[in-house]
Amino acid sequence: MKNTDSKKWNESTFYELIEVDPQASSREIHAAYMRAKQTYSPDSPALYTMFSPEEARELSKLIEEAFFTLSNQNRRQQYDLQLAQSGHPIFSNLLKDEKKSKTMTSLHPISINPEPSLVTSSKVPAGYGKTKFGVYKEDPEFEKQLQQPTFCNGEFLQKIRTYKNVSLEQLSEETRISKSYLSALEADRRDQLPAPVFIRGFVLQVARALIVSDKLADAYMKSIRKN
Amino acid sequence: MMKGTDPVSSPSHTYQFVRGQFDSDAVIFAIGGGKGGIGKSFISSSLALFLAHMGHETYLIDLDLGCANIHTSIGEPLPKLGIHDFLSDPSLSIKDVSVPTAIPNLKLVAGSSDMLETADISEFQKSRIMGSLYKLKTKFIVLDLSAGTHHSTLDFFLMATNKIVLFTPEPSSIENAYRFLKAAFYRKVRRLENQLELTEMIADLMSRRAEYGLKSPGDLLKAIQNKDLVAGQKLNRILKDLHLHVILNQVRTLKDTDLGPSIKDVCVKYFGLPFNYLGHVEHDNAVWQALRNRKHLLLEYPHSKVYAQMMNITRNLVAPYLKRDMVG
Lengths: 227, 328
Prior knowledge:
The complex is a heterodimer of chains A (227) and B (328). By secondary structure, chain A is mainly alpha-helical.
């Protein structure tokens, strides 16, 4: 059972283990380590009935390891690179930075630009696609349609969104288009939409958020003109 | 406004969609905690009082149906109307049984301390209460829940927009609050498994917990995701949108204050879900002194530390909703 626990915690990054942001300063890392050390100490009341003493010991060991790595700039940099190479989305920019840094003589602080993502790993199993909101099961025929969209109306827009498992709320938050406009787009309610030039912009943003060709906007506008 | 047929509806609204209910116009806060005597009524009445003081129309609902006494917490006499009237007359709504209080903007729906049978309500009665709460036109609703992990208590807790779990530094309170959270988690998963077609998979995983190495809810979520990536992610998304908060009440020593963030961290690791630590409230003898005078502490002692701590907690809790209002 101990092996299972160890494997379970090992799936978390050192940052997740001590609950600190990957961009945290060394002072923040130290504070988070002190708190984590106290939280998972064997006599901590916060653990009561949640983690067994063995699990707490296992966690404490990993927390020490996390602090040993993250408290030293060189070790931390190496660790971040390892995460980037293993496909961790937060550290993907580091691989580009590493190439640049090889040409520089001085060591510069690491810049990490986390991309907002719900997907914890960039690796997606075969047969699945990925948007920034999550994963979806791929349908090869529909994917072909999406590459060269020749026709698009509200119903088709909704079909793409639901196919990609994206909710109206998520799309609205990403595109900054109000939910009522998005609903009107999907229901082809022209009377509730602004001028055509704005509609084209809306569909373009929706297409980009859902990772579909920009041609979707032209196809949608064509269908509007027809009607 | 009936929820639409959007198959990937917003996680926060999926519950209503599943239950065939309505979107709530109000922001609902529920205060739960498993154990009795940890200050649920004090925290919920303080929260409601501050919200009303901030100028927002607020309803304080006593859903501690067996031992209703929230009216005493805010220094009001037992109202003539209450939940028992609502339950015995199908034509009434929650609004009909609410009464104004001495505090401007604050309305009270008292529990039912005189009717023994009301403590144990049926599934239909519970749904009626929930439906009527969803339809209530107001800015904020604060639900004071009973102790324990009765299904109706868990469902009232889960219907809230923001779910606040109350701890005190005593081991028995910590144990009960964790148990309450575990019960709420599994109740929520049960409610969702049909919709996400995960019933068989979850039943299989739960019956072979040792084999799969499932020791915590977080492990269960990971195992579901490993078996069905899309459904697992949907479930994760819904659960991550539960808006769970932790408050540590009756803090007596400086060391106790460190316990709150630790409890929050343990919850995050154990459940694999985001939790927000709202802060601590110190133990203050003035609470029961004010109660004996039949006045709320925040009205009787506005210069106390507890007043400042509760105000801070309330501000943190409602800030997202007030910002949204300002943006329009």
